[in-house]
Design brief:
It contains 13 helices and 21 strands. The chain has about 475 residues and is an alpha/beta fold. Strands 1, 2, 3, 4, 5, 6 and 19 form a 7-stranded mixed β-sheet that branches. It has a 5-stranded parallel β-sheet with strand order 8-15-9-10-11. Strands 12-13-14 form a 3-stranded antiparallel β-sheet, with no helix packed on it. Strand 4 and strand 5 (about 95-100) form a beta hairpin. It folds into 3 domains: about 1-120 and about 270-340, FAD/NAD(P)-binding domain (3-Layer(bba) Sandwich), CATH 3.50.50; about 120-265, 3-Layer(bba) Sandwich (FAD/NAD(P)-binding domain); about 380-470, no CATH class.
Amino acid sequence: MEKAELAIIGGGPGGISAAVAAAESGVNVTILDENARIGGQIFRQLEKGFTLTNPKAMGRDYQKGVDLFRQFKQVESRINYLNHATVWGIFDHHRIAYERNRKSKTIEYKNLLIASGAYDRPVPFPGWTLPGVLTAGGAQNLVKNQRILPGKKFLLAGTGPLQLVLAHQLIQAGADIAAILEVGDVKGSWLKLMQGMWGNWGYAGDGLQYLQTIRKAGVPIMRNHIIARANGNQNVEKAVIARVDKDWRVIHNTRKSLNVDTVCLGYGLVTSTELTRLAQCDHEYDNGLGGYVPVRSETMETTQKGIFAVGDGAGVAGSQVALAEGRIAGIAASQALGHAPGVGQKKTLAELQKKLTRHHRLRKVLDEISRPRPGLYELAEDETIICRCEDVTFKQIKTLIQKEGINAKDIKRTTRVGMGSCGGRMCGPILIELLRNLGSQISGQPEGLNVRPPVKPIPLGVLAGAENNE
């Protein structure tokens, strides 16, 4: 069995920042990362064979990633980086199980840091399973990292700043965008948004750059609009859009069609908390932060001693927050392991906490604009698929969600929703929102589906061939 002084799950901004801080303090670090190279989704590096000819087109995030990679290079002698490593379980006695190179292995840690990230919020509406409907993150990965334009005529639908980022990247890649639909009420929150921007001028500069690109390309931004349906035979051919009220409910007689072949959905992100839940960390439900989030101290330590959580997997707040949280947790983990604090670390921690306070002020405003409203989960019709893995429709569960005392696990037992290969990652968040918005379960702390290993799909042969029968 392998051993690690500090094990870090995730090679994105939070995980790498924590690894650098810990390694600088003399800690021996092991990183388990599903990707081929460090960077995660935001700082994802180009695949082998691709050459970057115009760094400016990648935006400021690219340069931040380059700076982080440089820091990583300086301390990598203390870091054991395991790429293509899929963590599928956390068990007693400080053990992690992961799959790599078609083998299941176990690592024992003293301290653990989880930087599991987040994924695009799934939103069911008629036609959302048609080829040509992509998440914003999926489209961004294709365009930014693989240089693939996944369509000809695009519609962007959703809410939040990621829409502007994606539009900018698509336009730079030569895409024809019919419209950008912003379902949130940005205009009504303009004063609060400006107050949140104070001290966060980098975000404001980025936003203005993206808007300039969009306006120069002549792409309309349609505020208070939503996609109500995607139509087509084998793939998307048309999108039906409509105006919405303050609760994001479609306003009667405002529907119209747009000829598009690609729809990119960006209704925010859902935290990946499967691993923190497996580790039995306490969680609380915060819809603005992406659903369930682990309860943490100021040093990012969870309610389980020696286990830290950072980045979007601990509450969706963006790469800059992930970088700051990672460094704080890396320093805290080092001290918990008995390593003497480095020169100036106390000052560094104070500066990072101030930075987080500024970021959180802006994040709260953006969360209020983008927080999913009930109308988002009233778009589904009887035959709309809710669970893709098991082909469970809205009709199969809509009568169940209105029963008094019903919960997600009851519906799972009755319909098999959440029992597919994704382990409920797609349909689980939808089910919680249906219960909160359309059912009798209106508690601020809704009960979701259970999490069990393996939390990621891995071949049974890998489990059967685990080393030493672990």
